[in-house]
Design brief:
Blueprint lengths: L2 H17 L22 E7 L3 E3 L11 E9 L3 E9 L1 E3 L12 E17 L7 E8 L19 E6 L5 E2 L4 E5 L2 H8 L3 H5 L1 H7 L3 E5 L9 E8 L4 E8 L6 E7 L6 E5 L13 E5 L5 E5 H14 L7 E11 L14 E6 L5 E3 L9 E5 L4 E5 L1 H5 L14 E11 L5 E5 L6 E5 L5 E8 L2
Length: 440
């Protein structure tokens, strides 16, 4: 870091300390940070930011732990549907049910424990759920997206499960069609003894909520379940013995399972700044801000005031985005948001500042707003700072969540499983509040 950037760093730290003090102080800094003959004045300016609603076509939805199924129909956002794609393997390799003529299948049941839900009005909820067999291979170490599944990926739209209607219970139990289940039971010895061969024969399943086109406005539910605790139970007996026997299949964890989402909110997109913007999680519409405009606005304001932009030291850059409450339900709004952008692979990633403890981004329910500390990002516009700085300027407000790795360290990830939505205030309510000083 060159000497001028180092000086800016210490100045910013000093300013932040003074601004957080409980007593009134002189708005100048002196001996410890700059030469004694220099005076530093702290100033504040506020910008009204243009914000619009952008359509997002697809997002990463690969998951090793969370499956989703169901539908929601909202007045503004329209119909949202969720389904889950996963692969299953025998509990143990080489298991033999016995000779086909000596074995009688009693049932084959997929058991799913519902962990949580996103709900609208669930009065008289009735969701037919079906299981389809995939007609394509899923690759190892591959990322899948919300629109990866195509109609040709399952066999002629013929389901491999019996009719089942979900009415909101904590456990979903779907019976496989008997003819199909027997195909699994009596796979060849080689297929039963080798995972790769088994998956070539039974490539995977697609769990779908049917009849989404009949959902009434304001109705629906999406259910989330743990892929690691979902299993398929085969109950059978031998012809010469009435004793029930069991064998199990579990969802394969090292291959890329993924969720399939469809949205109807694309008509809400608008390339111009308006008074209301719309935010939907997953592959739905997102609020969009062009930070080239922000950079230019700061430069123009300071130049009009006769100030040298090269001497700008930012103490705090706070972005404030209010929720349009009560039009928008706070219960459906995502709790934390970040600023995300498309990388060189056209996938979304998020602003480096998100990792800082001071970043914020959580929904303040009492103030009905989101606020973000973008100090590092905005300062990087003006001092050629490249270390950890995000160069992207096209930013989308995007739900995020925190998890922990095997070492107990916090890891932040863009939300790829749980549905959320909200209506935000646009122009002129979105603000960037800049606290800064000009080095002498």
């Amino acid at each position: 870091m060159n000497s001028r950037n180092l000086k800016i760093f210490f100045v910013v730290i000093g300013i932040a300390s003074l601004l957080n003090a409980c007593v009134e102080v002189d708005k100048t800094l002196g001996l410890d940070f700059v030469p004694g003959n220099a005076m530093i004045d702290v100033e504040q300016i506020e910008f009204t930011l243009p914000i619009s609603t952008a359509k997002v076509d697809s997002v990463l939805t690969s998951s090793t732990s969370v499956g989703a199924v169901g539908w929601l129909n909202q007045k503004l956002f329209g119909l949202f549907t969720a389904g889950s794609v996963f692969r299953m393997l025998p509990y143990s390799l080489g298991f033999d049910y016995g000779k086909e003529e000596d074995v009688k299948l009693d049932s084959a049941v997929l058991t799913i424990y519902v962990a949580s839900r996103t709900q609208l009005d669930t009065t008289s909820l009735s969701q037919p759920l079906s299981l389809y067999l995939l007609d394509r291979d899923l690759a190892y170490s591959t990322s899948y997206y919300s629109n990866t599944l195509k109609p040709d990926d399952h066999l002629s739209m013929e389901k491999v499960s019996k009719d089942y209607t979900y009415k909101g219970e904590d456990t979903i139990r779907i019976h496989l069609d008997g003819v199909f289940a027997e195909k699994i039971m009596f796979a060849t010895e080689e297929e039963r003894a080798n995972d790769t061969l088994f998956l070539q024969k039974f490539k995977g399943f697609y769990l779908k909520a049917e009849n989404s086109e009949t959902v009434g406005e304001g109705k629906g539910q999406v259910s989330y379940f743990d892929l690691t605790s979902t299993y398929l139970t085969f109950t059978y007996h031998h012809a010469d013995n009435d004793t029930a026997r069991y064998f199990y299949y579990f969802i394969e964890q090292s291959t890329p399972n993924f969720n399939v989402y469809s949205h109807s909110s694309g008509s809400l997109s608008n390339s111009t700044s308006i008074e209301t913007v719309y935010m939907e999680g997953l592959a739905g519409v997102k609020p969009y801000i062009n930070f080239d405009w922000v950079k230019d606005s700061i430069e123009n304001r300071l130049q009009q005031a006769g100030k040298d932009i090269s001497k700008l030291a930012i103490s705090k850059a706070e972005l404030v985005v209010p929720v349009d409450y009560p039009t928008s339900s706070l219960d459906l709004c995502p709790t934390p948001l970040t600023l995300a952008y498309k990388d060189t692979t056209d996938a979304f990633t998020f602003l480096t500042d998100t990792y800082f403890d001071s970043f914020g981004g959580a929904l303040n329910r009492s103030l009905q707003q989101y606020s973000f500390n973008l100090t590092y990002y905005v300062q990087g516009f003006f001092n050629n700072q490249t270390l950890y700085h995000t160069p992207a300027r096209d930013m989308y407000l995007y739900p995020i969540y925190s998890t922990y790795d095997s070492y107990g360290s916090e890891v932040k990830l863009l939300e790829r499983n749980y549905y959320s939505c909200g209506i935000l205030k646009g122009a002129p309510d979105v603000k960037l509040k800049l606290t800064y000083t000009m080095l002498k």
